[in-house]
Amino acid sequence: LSTRAGCTGCASSAREAVEATMALGNVGVSMRVLHDILTREREARGRGGTVRRPFEPRRRPAGDRLTTWDVCHEIVRPLTAKRRVSLYAAIKAGLTDSTSGAAFGHEDTGSTKVYTVHAWEYAFEDVVLALESSVAPGSRVWIDLAMINYWARDSPVKFLNTDLEFVLVRCTRVIVLAWPALEPRLARRSWCLLELALAKYLKKEVSVAMPPAELEAFTSAFREDAVGLYEALSDFSWSLSHVSVPSIKAKMEVYVTRQLDLPLTALRQYPTSLMESWLIKYGSDQLEAHPGDTTYRAQLGLLLKRRGKVDQAAALFREALRRNYAEKFGVAAPIARAVLSDGVLSSAAECLSTVSDGALMLSVGNSYAVILMNDGKLGEAEQLLRRVIRAREHELGMTHAATLVSMNNLGIVLTRQKRYGEAETLIQRVIDARESARGPDHPETLVSLSSMANLLQSKGEHSSAEEIYERVLKTSERTLGEDHADTLLAMNNLAALLHVRGAYDEAEALLRRAVAGRERTKGLSHPKTLVSMFNLGQLLRSKRDWAGAEKLFRSVVDVSYRELGPTHPNTLAAEEALEAMTSKLKKSGAYPASDAGSMTSVATRRHVPMKYTDLSADF
Questions:
Q1: Beta pairing, strands 173-177 & 114-117
Q2: Residue 239 DSSP SS3
Q3: 495 with 534: CB under 8 angstroms?
Q4: What burial letters (b/e) apply to 578-606, b meaning 16+ CB within 10 Å?
Q5: Residue 9: is its pLDDT beyond 60?
Q6: In this structure, are residues 3 and 12 in contact, taking their beta carbons and an 8 Å threshold?
Q7: Is the dihedral of CA 564, 268, 521, 217 positive or negative?
Q8: What value, to the nearest 5°, has the Cα angle with vertex 509 and ends 505 and 510?
């Protein structure tokens, strides 16, 4: 710790007290301490501030609430100036309460299992209110404002190299303060991204907290557009993130790549995964608290579908449509269930046919139709999509973006039904409308072009299909970047066509790029990553590289079993492929005898078609 003449003894004793306590476990300060700082903050509001804020270099006007940054410099630093230690150490050394004048008690410092992640631009009052809503009264929390000695010049480096992992390892819960709903400030803060990545790496329980007013806005945003909210919450970018001491960012990168042995993409991928999981849990908790709320049910289904949890999403969509039908007509719930039972799935269309449903239920209908299509229930999917298109045309117009989404999906259904003439006419209408409204290079236009290429491939017109797929890939790489989801989809689809045409080396190069890109951006366990891995395994099998194929199929099986479940069609397809490769290797004598019993046979369960392909569709 940094000290000056005349204060050395005080600082040393305070430091020893802190270190002795930390040796026993993780430590923090009580909510009473934070409320005391909040009392001082309210007193300081009337005074203007002269502190230069790192991301907002301006003087703080009198009357403005103080941010955490302001509190650190205008309140905490003066309180700790005599001993030049952290606030925690100052309290241990006898700092007094601002209201009573008495020293803080032993219960105000000590062990804690709660770690706080927050951006320093938040109003400190909101930080306290958010924590208050998430921890029990009298709880202690680890919060950097109180725990780090900001008098020490090397405190950020020391915290990074020695303290950060030490503290997080000993915490069981991480509270992330994230708001406003559609533009959370932590998404562009380097420290926050690092803390979230480390929390994921250490497999910590993570929850998000907000002050009451922000939570109300968040709830409204979830009910309005949960998928859009997810995209906003997970809009993380390490390259665009900021840190108050620029030189520390390079040290963070070294810490991640060398000490944790993670790629830098983990600084985006891990926080995104955490926020996605938390948002799904939030939706599940809200639905459990409000089981009759169709909006929560529908929004949670849309989130789960985006994550690839299609079975769970389908169940939520079916129930949402049932309840929507019952609410519209005043029908008792059991009758509504009969209208849309598993045996009468085509009646899903009827639930949208006679009433004007809002945009949310039409989105549910569109998404449920895609699930039906992927399950091979093309007739039901067609009926439902036609109902959705009719409603969207009536409410929004024939060329509205939402209407075109459903039209494109219907074109894919017709393609799978081999009704090529109808499909081509419909998809061309979508292409023309999107080119006119958005331009030839817009991502939505490229999606429709991929649908046309898929149709041509199904008809056996491989040269024409390849030409379109190549155009889509080149345009996506140029306008969206190599790691964009649409670009990786285009790689996967072009590779699938090249595989069919026997251009194995070209297809392999594309698929390896797709696998690497999806693993970087989405993670190994994401359904899209598994799709590309499976397709690469299929290609290696065609090249008679049985060992390479077996290794990929085994990885897909392991992850699919955990993420999708043992009975999911993709898990079963991967197991079937793995079993075939295992048999090949055994016959060739290349399969280790010790592994002979490690493969679970799927023969006793059921055989499923090998439908492990990407879908060039709008969702």
A1: parallel
A2: coil
A3: no
A4: bbebbebbeeeeebeeeeeeebeebeeee
A5: no
A6: yes
A7: positive
A8: 120
Taking the alpha carbons of 412, 417, 420, 425 in that order, is the dihedral positive or negative?
A: negative
Task: Return the amino acid letter for 548.
Answer: G
Residues contacting residue 9 through CB under 8 Å, at least 6 positions apart: none
Say if residue 53 is exposed, middle or buried (CB neighbours under 10 Å; 0-12, 13-18, 19+).
middle
> What is the reported pLDDT for 193?
95
d(CA 89, CA 95) in angstroms, rounded, equals 9
- Other C-beta atoms within 10 Å of 227: how many? 16
User: Where do runs of H (alpha helix) occur along 257-358?
Assistant: 266-289, 294-306, 310-329, 333-339
CB 51 within 8 A of CB 74: yes
Contact call for residues 264 and 257 (beta carbons, < 8 A): yes
**Can you tell me whether residue 116 is helix, strand or coil?**
strand
**Segment 480-514, tens digit of pLDDT:** 999 898 999 999 999 999 999 999 999 999 999 99
Which of 194-198, 207-211, 481-485 has the least mean pLDDT?
Answer: 481-485
Closest CA to 48 of 74, 69, 79, 80: 74
* CA separation for the pair 296, 316 (Å, rounded): 10
Q: How far, in whole angstroms, is CA 353 from its chain's centroid?
A: 34
DSSP 8-state code for residue 159:
I
Please tell me the distance from the alpha carbon of residue 101 to that of residue 344, in angstroms, as a whole number.
73
Confidence at 347, pLDDT banded by 50, 70, 90: low
Of 539, 542, 492, nearest to 517 by C-alpha is: 492
In the chain, % helix, strand, coil (3-state, to 5) comes to: 65, 5, 30
pLDDT > 90? residue 310: no
Of the candidates 480, 416, 417, 494, which has an alpha carbon nearest to the alpha carbon of residue 449?
A: 494
Residue type, 319: E
Q: For the packed helices 212-233 and 266-289, what is the interaxial angle rounded to 10 degrees?
A: 130
Q: What tokens does 102 get? A: 């008495």
Query: Which amino acid is present at 338?
Result: A
pLDDT confidence band for 340 (50 / 70 / 90)? very low
Pair 38, 29: CB distance under 8 Å: no
Mean pLDDT check: name the lowest of 23-27, 98-102, 261-265, 607-611: 607-611
CA dist 256 to 119, 288, 525, Å? 20, 38, 21
- Catalogue the E-assigned strands of 501-560: none
- Residue 125 to residue 39: CA distance in whole angstroms: 9
Are β-strands 109-111 and 114-117 bridged in parallel, bridged antiparallel, or unpaired?
Answer: unpaired
**What does the radius of gyration of the chain's CA atoms come to, in whole angstroms?**
28
| Report field, pTM of the whole predicted structure over 0.90 | no
Q: Please give the DSSP secondary-structure letter assigned to residue 60.
A: B
Helix (H, G, I), strand (E, B) or coil at 57: coil
Task: Note whether 56 and 31 are within 8 A (CB).
Answer: no
Residue burial 437-447, b: 16+ Cβ < 10 Å; e: rest = eeeeeebbbbb
Spatial CB neighbours of 279, under 8 Å, sequence gap ≥ 6: 222, 226, 229, 230, 233, 303
Question: How far, in Å, CA of 302 to CA of 225, rounded?
Answer: 9
Starting at the earlier edge strand, list the strands of the sheet with 27-30: 109-111, 27-30, 140-141
Give the DSSP per-residue string, 396-413. H-TTSHHHHHHHHHHHHH
Secondary structure letter of residue 64 according to DSSP: P
Q: Is the peptide bond before 180 cis (omega within 30 degrees of 0)?
A: yes
